[in-house]
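Exercise 3.2. Students should predict the tertiary structure of the chain below and write it as structure tokens, then compare their answer with the key that follows.

Predict this chain's 3D structure.
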Amino acid sequence: MVLKVVRVVPVRLDDDTLGFIDMLINLGIYNSRSEALRDLIRIGVDELKWIAKVNEAVEKLFKLETEYGEIPIKIKGILEELLRGRDRF
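Answer key:
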């Protein structure tokens, strides 16, 4: 069994968000703010994991560009947008 390191992270929330979390607790969905936030953050991270795959693919393209002098796959529009975002175009 692998033990995960748990860290305390201070967070600031607006009243609407905190009110929503408190409502979830009052409804009995969660027992505490910490439990609710842990679960909601996990759900958000799971929903956005695709970004890591996109980032990995883009990094591979940049590595290929370095090795071969150009990117072997060119997708009109989106590639230029990604390169502009990284100050490479």
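Discussion points: Helices lie at 15-26, 33-47, 50-68, 78-85. Residues 25 and 77 are 46 Å apart (CA to CA).
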